[in-house]
Amino acid sequence: MDKLFFKKTYHIIVQRVSKQRLHRRPEPESSIDDQEIIKGNLNDGLNGSLAVVYGIISTILDRYDFDNPRNALDIGTGTGVLLAKLAQLFPETSFTGIDISQAMLEIAQETTKKYKNIYLMLCNLHNLKATFDGKTFDLITWSLGLHHLKNNEEASKTISMLTDLLSPRGRLFIFDIERPKTLSGARFLADTFNNKYGYPYYQDSLNSYLAAFSYQEMEEIIKAASVKTYLHKRPFFINIFQYVIIPGARIKPKAQRHRPEFHYQGNQLFDYKLLKLAFGL
Ligand SMILES: C[S@@+](CC[C@H](N)C(=O)[O-])C[C@H]1O[C@@H](n2cnc3c(N)ncnc32)[C@H](O)[C@@H]1O
């Protein structure tokens, strides 16, 4: 057992038992335009811990019955690395990836270029209703983006608006960080998982941990969005991520789709297996 293993175990226990509640600090910026941050995001998504998160998201999506979506909208698509994986998971689905950052979309253009079922668009998510005017989607995915919103009220309103963009059989999937209970917990995450790709990306990651909503806040946000049914889950022994599916969905006993390939080794493989176990996948 190496030192990192004990540090991770210590962190998991502290986050489970701590009575502290770190206040939320909204992101200083919503759009991500800084080239150094984008570069860090891309490298983390291709080779780092973010690549493990994309594996977990793919595995979660693979386990729910989304009923072969004809079209899908990916919000705050960023570098497009996740979008490319989603396009592999749902090869028959036509994807539209939107982002507010032109610089991000230029990277996404490259990372998704071999997928014929992906279309990218510069768009602020708050203008989605006007932009798509009456169009609906069978699947809307929103990964690591909710924490960019200012407060609970804006988050509820946005979720409510997104459910209006769903087709009658459509589903909204939101995946995000669960805010650590302590500042040292947030620092531990950024130090351990996001420190390889330069200081601007490290600082941006730390900001994301601090801006994320707690599990309880997320419950309040969904309730205020007045959705009929939902499923809200987090790993059962690790407080680090959470996801929501609206309306609630049934987990399939067996995965059926061809999952995108991920080649994890060492710590990446360990983290993927741990998260998979903790999410009950
Ligand atoms: C942390 S990144 C997540 C990217 C990707 N979804 C992932 O999982 O890796 C958040 C993305 O949301 C975008 N974003 C922030 N506010 C937005 C808004 N109002 N409308 C559209 N995109 C937004 C940012 O520019 C950034 O690319």
Describe what this molecule looks like in 3D.
With 281 residues, the chain is of the alpha/beta class. The protein has a single domain (3-14, 28-278), classed as 3-Layer(aba) Sandwich (Rossmann fold). Helix content is 45%, strand content 16%. It contains eleven helices and seven strands. It has helices at 3-17, 35-47, 49-63, 81-89, 102-111, 128-132, 152-164, 183-193, 199-211, 215-224, 266-278; strands at residues 71-75, 94-99, 118-122, 137-143, 166-177, 231-233, 241-246. A seven-stranded mixed β-sheet has the order 3-2-1-4-5-7-6. Helix 3 runs parallel beside helix 11 (266-278). It is globular, with a radius of gyration of 18 Å. The two termini are 25 Å apart. The mean pLDDT is 94. The protein binds S-adenosylmethionine. S-adenosylmethionine is lined by residues 30-32, 45, 76-78, 82, 98-101, 104, 124-126, 143-145, 148.
Low-confidence stretches: none
CATH 2nd-level architecture: 3-Layer(aba) Sandwich
- List the bound ligands: S-adenosylmethionine
Radius of gyration: 18 Å
Write down how many β-strands occur, each being a DSSP E stretch of 2 or more residues: 7
What is the CA-CA span between the terminal residues?
A: 25 Å
Find the structural class using helix and strand composition: alpha/beta
Whole-number count of domains: 1
Number of helical runs?
A: 11
Helicity level: 40-55%
